Structure formats: structure tokens, C-alpha cells
Amino acid sequence: MTVATTAEGPSASLRERKKQATRLELRRVALRLIADRGYSNVTVEEIAEAANVSPRTFFNYFPTKEAALFGADPELAAATRDAIVHGQPGEPVVTVLRALMTSRATAVMGEFAELGGDPIEWLARMKAARTDPHLHAAHAAQMAAIERSLAEAIAERLGSTLERDPYPGLLASIATGVFRSSMSFWASSGGTAPLDELVDRAFGALASGLPETSDLRYVMERKDNP
After folding, report:
1. Residue range 160-179: average pLDDT?
2. Pair (130, 186) in one structural domain
3. All residues at 6 or more sequence positions from 46 whose CB lies less than 8 Å from its CB, including other chains
């Protein structure tokens, strides 16, 4: 029994590493092909072939082409909801969201770095791909679903509902807006200002009432003059 248990650990770890490598390669290929040709001109079969896997293997990792681009992870959505509802008991929900979104920003930077090469170049490829009308619509639908999920989790934490309380929906909209705006600035700055720092400072500015003297406005100046 001891031998079997010990052998199973490294084996499982190796499987996970292989799965992660395949997932990353599928994302690399999807980003490259769709940015170059356009979303409508690339098939799942072509992505799979370029990644040296079967279409069936592709669907083991991603349900659609857009999921490969966005890196959609159903487990992440569940973990995010749980963190909002149950995380940091006694703290204001804005504090919880700030920590959660900052942590997610750190993870996003890591995900782009794992793709290899210049993370900002991969982000630029993703932005180029999103100009396709079909993909733009799919991304808008995904963002709406994320915002709705955040709002429901916030309402649950506050013991309220979206039908009788506008606050959860407003806060969810602000949180997704902060992340989207920070992502855009991060890309345009060439990664000079770290995404997690941008998100954290943005939430700090919100908590202070968005003053014109917020640290967020001077993030680039501080990078240029450490």
C-alpha cells in the first residue's frame, strides 16, 4: 500500500504537468491563428492539428474556440463566488473584491508569462482577435455572465437579492470595469505598470472617492522616477 501511494503521487503530478502543457499549447496556437486569420477563418480542427492533438483532445480542455482564447476555467468561477460569499468574514465586500481582483490580476500576468515570449505580445494578439464581430459578441456575453455571477455572490454575502437591492449589481459592474480598464492600460503601457498594482490602486482610489490626487494617476511617474 505504501509503495502504491508513493508512486501515485509523482504519477499524478506528471499527468497534471502534461495537461497544463497541452492546455497552454492549445491557447498559444489559438491566439496565433485567430489573430492572424480572424476568428471565423479558423476551425477547431486546424487549432488541434497545429497543436499536434486531436479535435477530441481539444474539447477535453475547451468547449469552444473562444474559451481557448479567453482561458475560461469553470473551476475559477466557482472559487471566485465562494471567496466572495465566505472569504474574509466581517470585512466590507469592497475589501474582499479588492483582494480577490488583485490576486486574479497577478494570476493573469502569470498566465500570459506561461505562454512564453513577451506577455504583452500575446495580449496584443488577443486584442486583435477580439476585433472579429463574432468573437466580440462572445466576449461581451462572457463578461456579462461574469458580472452577473459577481453580483449574485455579492448579494448572497450581504443577505440580499438582485431584485430588491441595486448595490450588488452596481458593485459588480464597477469591479469588472476596474479590471477591464486596468487590463487595457497594462497593455498600452507595455507591461511597465504591473497589472496587479494597477488593480489594487484602482480599488484604493474607489475606496477614497476617486480623488484627483489618487496614487493611481501617478503610477507611470513613479515607475519613471523610482
Report:
1. 95
2. yes
3. 33
User: Domain end: 40, 65, 90, which one?
Assistant: 65
3-state DSSP helix/strand/coil percent for the chain, to nearest 5?
Answer: 75, 0, 25
Pick from 12, 41, 65: which residue ends a domain?
65
Tell whether 93 and 179 lie within a shared domain: yes
Tens digit of each residue's pLDDT (9 = 90 or more) over 14-27: 777 788 889 889 98
Rounded-to-integer distance, Cα 225 and Cα 115, Å: 30
Q: Are residues 94 and 53 in the same domain?
A: no
Q: How many domains, the chain?
A: 2
**Is the pLDDT confidence value at 161 over 60?**
yes
pLDDT of residue 9: 44
Q: Are residues 136 and 43 in the same domain?
A: no
Report pLDDT for 188.
78
79 and 60 inside one domain = no
Task: Report the alpha-carbon distance of residue 161 to residue 152 in Å, rounded.
Answer: 7
| Cα separation, 121 vs 129, whole angstroms | 12
Q: Residue type for 21, please?
A: A
53-91 tens-digit pLDDT: 999 999 998 888 888 877 666 677 788 999 999 999 999
Integer CA distances (angstroms), 166 to 58, 85, 129, 170, in order: 40, 17, 34, 6
Can you give the pLDDT at residue 7? 40
With the C-alpha atoms ordered 223, 219, 130, 119, is the resulting torsion angle positive or negative? Answer: positive
Residue whose C-alpha is closest to residue 69's, from 109, 107, 110, 112: 112
**CATH number of the domain within which 200 lies:** 1.10.357
**Domain coverage including residue 27:** 1-65
